[in-house]
Automatic annotation (TrEMBL):
One of its GO terms (cellular component) is COPII-coated ER to Golgi transport vesicle. GO terms for molecular function: D-mannose binding. It holds the Pfam family Lectin_leg-like. This is VIP36-like protein isoform X3. The gene is LMAN2L.
Amino acid sequence: MQPGPVFGNMDKFVGLGVFVDTYPNEEKQQEAQKRRYSPGVQRVFPYISAMVNNGSLSYDHERDGRPTELGGCTAIVRNLHYDTFLVIRYVKRHLTIMMDIDGKHEWRDCIEVPGVRLPRGYYFGTSSITGDLSDNHDVISLKLFELTVERTPEEEKLHRDVFLPSVDNMKLPEMTVPLPPLSGLALFLIVFFSLVFSVFAIVIGIILYNKWQEQSRKRFY
């Protein structure tokens, strides 16, 4: 993990991000412009959201991650006198996020996304960042469990063949690798063969033109 602007982690990360956002940047900007969301699209903060990234997407802070959000829910986790819990479950390409924030030891659904493909060999981590509005949140514990799942040979092969995070029916931009600069020799050869081809084309054109003129004179006589 590398430090960065996405809740303390780097932008254009590779993997799954689950964010607990406590400040509505987009809503405050809308209010400053005297504009309001319709009730159907307005989100109430604090807000939990999820994002899958293959290293090509930037998290849009100005819009609170809305363009790349897989799903989300409101989670009122401020100033509570009991512990709150978040569970992230990933089984057979199915991502489920639930929360217990009412002190009743009952899970509530938050996010459910099928078709999530995550490679093996990744790491778990937590990070945070403080903006203009400061908050204090403590991570008391982080518990990890390996779930026993029965897979067919075909499912096992498909699971092994995942090399970059992705989501079915969601087009993620391909990672572009910059081409290395041309060496002096390669540049010389490209220019040289381009000139040779140009001269060859001109010579062929002159020959064809002379033949056409000759045939025209014969038809005239």
